[in-house]
Design goal:
The chain is an alpha/beta fold. It has 14 helices and 15 strands. The protein folds into two domains: 186 residues, Rossmann fold, CATH 3.40.50.1260; 183 residues, Rossmann fold (3-Layer(aba) Sandwich), CATH 3.40.50. Helix 7 links the parallel strand 7 and strand 8. The structure holds adenosine-5'-diphosphate and magnesium ion.
Length: 402
């Protein structure tokens, strides 16, 4: 990778602007509902603290659209961060300007200052040069550890690197790029991908880019019904993206799809998605008109297990059914187990996507997957083969320095 990593940064006694991804869900009471993203940034933060750097930490949270919104402030994050780091964290209401600069200047070695939600200022998402300069004025060095925001060209991910050229990638960013990079660059074969979830639309380009690279691409979740429809099958009241049927047909017709693209042979159908009706398993070509497809069937679970049996590299994104409803969670939880078993056999396994990760946690398998990708949109864009602007910006500073 063509960027500098954290260990190469001479950060002792320096003020370091650390862009993290603290875009955590908040509860109704306004506390942090899930701190996994905070926890994921701790290795970088602890390393910098240990090295005696002075940390100016910044993140976005939610979509406040450039306005102050007390419900999306970072104060609850500060509290959780203090507990995680077991040390006080200073907080600046203002993101940039004299007050923030005063607080940044007051930092001692190993001290931490958290700035308020970057997206309270419309100039963040506009990648505004003036705002980038003001952010840069808070520090002497820049570390980007916000993999989840690396696909956005914003002031704190791109613009700031024009002013703070002493830059590095944090451990989380480095780890994500390394793991996802292994999927695209000479993966050990067979390479098996399992794609599910609610919609094809967000994942078409991933499908397109991965299909020529994988040995097997198994489809599940609601996505399967758009493929069934493309094959002219009855799909009942299952979720079908009508405007993506042609695209599904095109993918099925591709020469590289034959023998690779695996559609479920059967599925579980129910009267509705409430869970009141546990439903029953029917063959893919016998979905009754009035029913909804809610999960994989027994035969398709065997297909997934079979595909994973020999796999040396595995990527899974998107639940296989409506796993939030216990009666329809089997396909997803069994897929999670099969992926974990592949890890046990020595395969390199990556799971990405918010709902897929929550299924992994639900199954208690988080320690049996090689890499859990926290990136969401960033992971998908990377797997589409796109350059992530935040990463490109780090590479550009590395190039300029060499
Ligand atoms: P991820 O967050 O892992 O990327 P997605 O957001 O793409 O996954 O999809 C997750 C959603 O897909 C879940 O809410 C799940 O209920 C839904 N889903 C899966 N299978 C079906 C189905 N057969 N019908 C409707 N929704 C489904
Ligand atoms: Mg999701």
């Amino acid at each position: 990778m063509a960027f500098r990593t954290l260990r190469a940064l001479d950060c002792a006694r320096k003020r370091v602007f650390v862009r993290v991804d603290f875009n955590v869900p908040l509860s109704k009471e306004g506390t942090v509902a899930d701190d996994s993203r905070i926890v994921a940034s701790l290795p970088t933060l602890r390393y910098l603290i240990e090295k005696g750097a002075r940390l100016v930490v910044a993140s976005h949270l939610g979509r406040p659209k450039g306005k102050r919104d007390p419900k999306q402030g970072l104060r609850p994050v500060r509290e959780r961060l203090e507990r995680c780091l077991r040390k006080p964290v200073a907080f600046s209401e203002t993101i940039v300007g004299p007050e923030a600069e005063r607080q940044a200047a007051a930092l001692g070695d190993g001290d931490v200052l958290l700035l308020e939600n970057l997206r309270f200022d419309p100039r963040e998402e506009a990648n505004d040069p003036g705002f980038s300069r003001e952010l840069a004025a808070l520090a002497e060095q820049y570390v980007n550890d916000a993999f989840g925001a690396a696909h956005r060209a914003h002031a704190s991910t791109v613009g700031i690197t024009s002013h703070l050229t002493d830059c590095a990638a944090g451990f989380l960013l480095e780890r994500e790029l390394h793991a996802l990079g292994r999927l695209l660059q000479s993966p050990e074969r067979p390479f098996v991908t399992i794609l599910g979830g609610s919609k094809i639309s967000g994942k078409i380009d991933v499908l397109r880019n991965l299909l020529p690279r994988v040995d097997r691409l198994a489809v599940g979740g609601a996505m399967m019904f758009t493929f069934y429809r493309a094959k002219g099958l009855e799909t009942g009241r299952s979720l079908v993206e009508e405007d993506k049927v042609d695209l599904a047909r095109e993918l099925l017709a591709r020469p590289e799809a034959s023998g690779k693209l695996l559609l479920p042979e059967d599925c579980r159908v129910a009267a509705d998605t409430s869970g009141r009706d546990p439903g029953r398993v029917v063959p893919a070509d016998k979905i009754p008109p009035g029913l909804v497809g809610v999960d994989l069937g027994t035969a398709s679970l065997e297909q997934v297990r079979g595909a994973l049996e020999e796999a040396r590299t595995v990527f899974w994104n998107g639940p296989m059914g409506i796993f939030e409803v216990p009666a329809y969670a089997e396909g997803t939880l069994e897929t999670a187990k099969a992926v974990a078993q592949a890890t046990g056999r020595g395969a390199f396994t990556v799971v990405g996507g918010g709902d897929s990760l929550s299924a992994i946690h639900q199954a208690g398998l988080e320690n049996q997957i090689s890499h859990l990708s926290t990136g969401g949109g960033a992971s998908l864009e990377f797997l589409e083969g796109r350059t992530l602007p935040g990463v490109a910006a780090l590479e550009a500073t590395a190039e300029a320095a060499s």
